[in-house]
Design a protein that fits this description.
- The chain is elongated, with a radius of gyration of 33 Å.
- The relative contact order is 0.10.
- Helix content is about 50%, strand content about 20%.
- The protein is built from 26 helices and 26 strands.
């Protein structure tokens, strides 16, 4: 497996690892403990949702290979987070676990049949051999992967659900072996309990894998934005080479309509470049000599000659990918009700089991003069079975399923169910500007006519001149001119990065940025005051001139979504503070924020810095929700306690989020917040029920009066109760929804 991030030869390094085989919070706790006990490990972040760990370590004391080997020794798989498993690989893993489950189920049914026969007085001589074979097959065959993980954990002094299960399984096997050689003794009951608890653990593992087998496409789709080849000029000859072969200092030619394959500086040429992946803004940026360009941006109009400055790990897209990966692993752990008992639950059950054994052996001997070995083993095994944390482990996931059902009715998809558990504690909602608060597409918002021209004439002249242009601003003008009669044009000429000129009935028309018209000798004094005001408002201004005289101005901007102001008001009414974040300039950002009623604004923020800004808010003690739709929002969506993607946004943003708003309705953020609070309340109910079974069941089992099989039935009953409590609430919400 590959190390993801180990940067710098001096000081701490980072290693990110994709982990296979995680099931629940006990796994997170086990991995943290294993790493925290290693010399040289400085900090550990483990994400259950994404099955990843980010380890900060001292490379002089421990290596990345040793970190990965630690996980393997615990029984977990180690994968490269840069490489996404194919559907076939995931399906093969599911198929393998499904087969194990089917075999375990077969053994369990057979054991139950033999036990029932014994209970009915139909004991046969070969029954004990059959039960022994079934028990050994389940523990050392089907359950072998679990046994390895338990042994590895126990060897490191880590007590988790695997260790507890194996104690119960081997307790049943030991009790059964006594009955194998000594009669009368309920051998079938003991061995049956060993089979049941192992099979149940296999079932839990399969369900966990089934829920978590989601192939995140974010990194793959992000890196697909970068062209695979580049046209490099070497010795005056243009060669098409792989991007991996490009080196800093090379000259790369990028033609109109092509993706820019590298980070660099424009040496020659003028063009409009769509770099919305950097800023999120839909309006192209004019690039000329000396301007920086980003790999993955789209060159739209002219040809550019770019001097390469960054390649490989230092390139922009690689940095964004790394930001997504690190944010995913550094994301604060989702608060769960059971989190505070993870350190004590398994040790507590083992102590109770040991106490039960001592009470009915040494205690009974002190009181009656004779140890009650049979009851001691019954009590010990019953405690181990009754203490198996299945209901406790399912309490939170089932509440998430309930919350997901309620959310789906309101057009909210829950990709990471744990997010609803923390939503109730969110205090700040960070909203991306473009595509979230605004529509994310340039629109003509104002037309200023000069002299004898009317607004329709200004639009008509501009639309006629731009009729054959593919520039996004030209498309916005054409949409505004729909229904108008446009004059015929000829001699169309695009001036890359500046505007266009065309001839209409022997009159020259110029359309472009104000500096272009000024350079062509057009006097803009008649519209200067209005031009300055529009630019102060953050508008993109297109000037129009005919025969050297200014005809008017066209203001183009991204417009607000219809429910943006109402949604922000709803966020405030819920007691949350809205914060707007954008890669756009401060002037435009402040203007948009004022329209929707947002007081806190973060502008000119790059993608990797968006995640840092979210992290800064978290470090101030606030739980943070982030709402966004673009590639540049992905790291921040991953970093936030709750990442919310607009369903109409990019695939990368959606894959990086915990919650997806299916439509374009920003008000659904408040709905998700309300459902989160309700979901948490249901979690508290479920955990209380689970603890009630454990709290009553374990002391009862210590009496030795609870048969191990009845302990298994009680455990199943606790799971069923939690299930009915969750699904009952869901069905009720659907009935009245």
């Amino acid at each position: 497996m590959h190390e993801v991030a180990e940067r710098g030869q001096v000081g701490p390094a980072k290693c990110q690892i994709k982990i296979g085989g995680m099931q629940c919070s006990f796994c997170v706790d086990s991995i943290r403990k294993a790493y925290s006990r290693m010399d040289g490990v400085l900090d550990v972040g483990v994400s259950l949702s994404h099955e990843e760990a980010l380890v900060q370590y001292d490379p002089g004391r421990v290596s990345a290979a040793q970190l990965q080997e630690t996980l393997r020794s615990l029984g977990y798989a180690v994968r490269d987070p840069r490489k996404l498993r194919s559907f076939e690989e995931e399906d093969a893993e599911l198929h393998e676990h499904r087969n194990r489950l089917f075999v375990a189920a077969g053994f369990t049914v057979t054991s139950l049949a033999l036990m029932s026969a014994v209970w009915l007085g139909q004991m046969q001589p070969w029954f004990k051999w059959a039960m022994l074979g079934l028990t050994l097959s389940v523990i050392f065959g089907v359950g072998w992967p679990i046994l390895k993980m338990a042994w590895a954990s126990l060897g490191r002094g880590i007590l988790n659900q695997h260790v507890l299960m194996e104690f119960a399984a081997f307790g049943g096997l030991a009790g059964g072996l006594i009955g194998f050689f000594k009669q009368p003794w309920p051998m079938a009951d003991f061995m049956g309990a060993a089979v049941f608890v192992t099979a149940y653990h296999v079932l839990s593992g399969y369900v966990s894998l089934l829920v978590r087998t989601r192939s995140s496409q974010a990194i793959r789709k992000l890196m697909a934005l970068q062209p695979e080849t580049a046209r490099v000029l070497r010795n005056g000859v243009e060669q098409e080479v792989s991007v991996e072969e490009v080196r800093p200092g090379d000259l790369v030619r990028v033609r109109p309509g092509e993706g820019i394959p590298v980070d660099g500086v424009v040496e020659d040429g003028l063009s409009g470049v769509n770099q919305s992946l950097v800023t999120g803004e839909p309006i192209p940026v004019e690039k000329g000599p000396g301007d920086e360009v980003i790999g993955g941006a789209v060159n739209q109009t002219g040809t550019l000659l770019v001097r390469v400055t960054k390649v490989g790990e230092e390139s922009f897209l690689q940095q964004v990918a790394r930001s997504i990966q690190e944010a995913r692993a550094l994301k604060p752990g989702i608060m769960q009700v059971v989190e505070h008992v993870l350190h004590w639950f398994v040790p507590g059950v083992l102590v109770a089991a040991a106490a039960a054994f001592v009470i009915w052996t040494l205690g009974a001997w002190l009181v009656t003069g004779e140890p009650n070995v049979e009851r001691a083993i019954f009590a010990t095994l019953a405690v181990l079975v009754m203490g198996y944390p299945c209901a406790l482990g399912m309490a939170t996931p089932l509440a998430m399923i309930r919350g997901g059902g309620m959310a789906a009715q309101k057009g909210i998809l829950m990709r990471s169910g744990e997010a609803f558990q923390v939503f109730k504690d969110v205090r700040k909602v960070v909203l991306d500007k473009t595509g979230t608060i605004t529509k994310g597409e340039p629109t003509v918002v104002e037309v200023v006519a000069s002299g004898n021209y009317s607004p329709d004439q200004v639009i008509g002249l501009a639309a006629a001149a731009e009729a054959v242009s593919e520039h996004p601003l030209a498309r916005a003008i054409m949409e505004r001119a729909e229904g108008l009669s446009l004059p015929a044009t000829r001699d169309f000429e695009a001036v890359p990065g500046r505007g266009v000129r065309a001839t209409m009935e022997d009159r020259e028309v110029l359309v472009g940025n104000p500096s272009f018209l000024a350079a062509e000798g057009v006097d803009l004094s008649a519209v200067r005051e209005r031009l300055d005001l529009l630019e102060q408002q953050g508008r993109t201004v297109v000037a129009v001139a005919e025969e050297g005289r200014v005809a008017g101005l066209i203001a183009i901007s991204d417009t607000l979504k219809g429910d943006a102001a109402e949604a922000v008001a709803g966020i405030k009414a819920a007691g949350l503070q809205p914060v707007m974040i954008t890669g756009d300039n401060w002037r435009t950002a402040q203007a948009v924020a004022a329209q929707v009623g947002i007081e806190v604004v973060l502008a000119e923020v790059l993608p990797q810095d968006k995640a840092n800004e979210v992290r800064r808010l978290q470090q101030q003690g606030s739980r943070v929700a982030m709402v966004g739709d673009g590639i540049n929002d992905a790291p921040a969506l991953m970093q936030a306690d709750v990442g919310i993607a607009i369903g109409a946004g990019t695939d990368i943003a959606i894959e990086s989020a915990d919650v997806v708003l299916v439509g374009d309705r920003l008000g659904a953020v408040v709905d998700a917040y309300s459902i989160g609070k309700s979901s948490f309340a249901k979690t508290v109910q479920n955990v209380s029920l689970a603890f009630a079974f454990n709290g009553i069941g374990i002391p009862a089992a210590m009496t030795g009066l609870v048969h191990p099989v009845w302990a298994m039935i009680a455990m199943a009953a606790s799971v069923t109760t939690v299930l009915l409590n969750s699904l009952g609430g869901t069905l009720l919400s659907r009935r009245h929804g």
